[in-house]
Each structure stands twice: as C-alpha cells, then as structure tokens.
Amino acid sequence: MKIRLSSVVLGIVFFWAGWSQAAQIVDRIIAVVNGEIITYQELIQTVRAFSGETPDQEILDRIANDVLDGMIDDIILRQEAERLEVKVSDAEIENEIQQFKARRKMDDEDFTRSLRLQGLTPEQFKERSRQEIIRQQILAYMVRRKVVVTQEEIDAYVAQNRPELVAEKVVDLQLVILSDQAFAEEIHKQLVTKKLTFDDAVAKFSLGDKEDAGLMRGVRWRELDEPWRVVLRNMTPGDLSPAFAIQDKWVLLKLIQEQEGENRSLSSVEDEIREAIMRPKLEERFKEYMAGLRAKALIDKRL
C-alpha cells in the first residue's frame, strides 16, 4: 500500500510539475511597460481579434512582434491618458461613430461595408473610435499650435481631384486582407502567376470577413480613405493591385467594375476635402508624439 501511495503521490508531484511548466510555456510574461505586464495569452487574444480566428503558429510567428509593439503603444497611450485624466464615455464613442457616418453621408449599409473595407468588426471599430478620441484629446492638450488646413491646400487638392469630387465613382471590388507585407507580396506573386485564384486566396488566407469571396459591390468613392484611392486611380477593371497597407493590415484588391455615381457640387464636399487634407497631418503629428512617449517609457520585451 505504501508503495502504491508513494507512486500516486509521486505521480501527482510530477503531474503538477509538468502542468506548471506547461502553463509557464503557454502563458508567460512577454513584455513589461512602465511596470504593466503583457502576457503571451493576451497576445494570442489580440491576434485572434486582429484576424477573426485563432492563429496558427505560422501566422503567429510572422506577426507576433508587430502586434506586440501595437499592444505596447496602446498601454503607453492609455497610461498617458490616465496621467492627463482623459476619459471617454460610451456616449462619446457613439457620437464619434455617428459623426463618422454623417461626414461620409453613410447609411447603416454603407457603414457595414466600410468596416469590411477596413477588416474590422463593429466592436473593433468602437475600440478604434475610443483610441481616436483619446488621441484627439491628447493632441489638443499637448500640441500648442493647431494643425490647420490652408485655402492654398484646399485649392491644390481640388485641382488634383476635381473629377472624382464632382462626379463620384462607384466601384465593385474583391479584396484579400493579409497579416503582413512579406506574406501579401508572396500571395500577390502567386495570383500574378496564376498559381492561386483570387477566390482561393480569400478562402484560404484573408483575415476576418470572407463573405461573397471578398466581393464588395457599389462602394462609393467617399467611403474610401486615401490609400485606397491612390491605388484605384491607376487601375482599370480586371486589374490586380500591389499590396498596400490599411491600418495595421495589408490588402490586395481586384477592381471588378467602375462607374460614375451622382454629380456633386464642390461646396457640398467641403468637409470631405478638409478631412482628407487634415487626416495625414494629424497622423504624422501623433506618430511624433508617440515616438517621444515611447522613448521615455521603460519597456522590457521578452518575446
């Protein structure tokens, strides 16, 4: 009996030792940011939200470092917001979403399509809206001189983009959303050499929503941010785009069809013009600000 008991106890000891070691492997600290930890499981959860599914090891290895850097920046931004006592309510988030839709004259269907273009769920868009409000408030608090849009810039933008401003395009697109640039370029190569069809690329590799094999019909020009417009201006129906970055993902798109939409006066799109000019300026200013915060932060990466 003693031998049996000892065997059982020894077995339990080894079981718990093995379980503890496995737990450390499965969930471990992979970064410390100003005393706040990030665990491996938190990284997995972030990648799952990012991709819409549980990542396999190949995808995880490819994007883990970039995702971790994003998580570190999120913590630094949140800590800065707490220091400045910046708070964002649910009502402010909802108001930001409604203003986003109003600026681009979107109904609910248009908005849903816009989320698909960005590879986002409604929950992810709400979190991005929260972060955007925080960014705007921090910039307003910390940046002494405001970012302005001059009349000269407006005139130059109108001169360059007049045709698409007054006669809005409507396009049908098929798109693949991918995790990183190198992988996107490899998929592009396979599409060009016919080793892979676009439908198969969507089914096998596209992150998030794969509805209708990535096909999106009736996308209006106003729904597209500038990176999309830059690519589409050089395409004709049937063309395949190079890989280009949208948010923290990479996109390949195929232009299926293009047609002219409604005619608009320049005065009716004045807010759209100002936003298009203002957005990259604010983004650049915020990147500079975040770089300063990150340089001062105590960051210990262990991935």
Report strand order across the widest sheet. 4-3-6-5
Low-pLDDT regions? 1-25
Could you tell me the CATH topology label of the domain at 167-264.
Chitinase A, domain 3
Q: What structural class results from the helix and strand content?
A: alpha+beta
**With helices defined by DSSP (H or I, 4 residues minimum), what is the helix count?**
11
Brief overview:
The chain has 303 residues and is an alpha+beta fold.
Walk me through what this model shows:
It is built from eleven helices and seven strands. It starts with a helix and ends with a strand. The protein has helices spanning 2-26, 40-51, 57-83, 90-103, 108-118, 122-142, 151-166, 181-192, 198-205, 226-232, 270-296; strands spanning 29-33, 36-39, 167-178, 215-220, 244-246, 249-263, 299-301. The chain is globular. The protein has a domain at 167-264: Chitinase A, domain 3, CATH 3.10.50. By secondary structure, it is an alpha+beta fold. The strands form two sheets. It has a four-stranded antiparallel sheet. Strands 2-1-7 form a three-stranded antiparallel sheet. A hairpin with a 2-residue loop joins β5 (244-246) and β6 (249-263).
Please render the helix and strand layout as text.
Elements: H1 2-26, E1 29-33, E2 36-39, H2 40-51, H3 57-83, H4 90-103, H5 108-118, H6 122-142, H7 151-166, E3 167-178, H8 181-192, H9 198-205, E4 215-220, H10 226-232, E5 244-246, E6 249-263, H11 270-296, E7 299-301
Antiparallel strand pairs: 1-2, 1-7, 3-4, 3-6, 5-6
Helix pairs in contact: 2-3, 3-6, 4-6
Notable features of this structure?
single chain, about 300 residues, alpha+beta, Chitinase A, domain 3, 4-stranded antiparallel sheet, 3-stranded antiparallel sheet, 7 strands, disordered N terminus
